[in-house]
User: Fold this.
Amino acid sequence: MSETTLSKITDHVYWMSPGEPDRPSLCAVVGTNRTLMLEAGASDAHARLFLDALSAAKVRHPDYVALTHWHWDHIFGAAELDVPVIAHWQTAAEIAIQAGYEWTDKALYERVANGKEIAFCADNIKLELPEPRQIRFVQPDIVYRDSLDINLGDVQVHLQHVGGDHAADSCVMHILPDKVLFLGDCLYDAIYTPVRHYTTKKVFPLLDIILSFDADYYVEGHTPTVMSRAELMTIVDKMRMVGKIVDELSADEAAVKEAVTAEMGTPLDEDTLGFIQTFIAGQQL
Ligand SMILES: [Zn+2]
Assistant:
């Protein structure tokens, strides 16, 4: 993945692209009155990189930060920001659980062994934050149930809980008039499970909600480009098509591949193969 850079993607939105080892997208939504940061980052260093980039661009620093979900790479930078944290109640509940854990390598891999953590995250935490590791958890200051609207001046941000397979607490942020939808990781597959997977039961309603927002720009947690509506639709169409076929043919991988190939009329690309595997895994749960 390329080095993280800060760019202005619309009139009010600055985006820092995702980076190594597993740093997600960060945004600043800048209004005439206030700046809202989206995601706290993977560490103090990641948060500081973002703040320094804002300073260099002469952008007002965040007045508060809103989280999309509880996963470590989205929350560990919160203390460095030193601003009120806004989160869904389920995100707040999970942060309280994480704050009670020990964060040595030994404790981290014990949790991997007993199923409370996954190796992918433990390995990336080690890379982002080598031992000795001090993680300063921040319990959210403002907690909402379904949605929350924030007026920053000439720009409004609507925070909406959407759930999905990736994390039950997933929320998106809709920014108007810029027509940006900040997706966090909500469209990705379930990772905190023995097998990565998608279920049509959760994905199909989620896709309907995502498409119901009036947006032209889509920012995902770990996707290194800002997507247009057309680019998002390409992904959505593939997910809907594969999910429907897997529902019909169950877990018969060869039959699913044949049906999907016939439907697409082209050889299976990497994305589609990934969706086939993850939707089948979801069927087998
Ligand atoms: Zn995540």
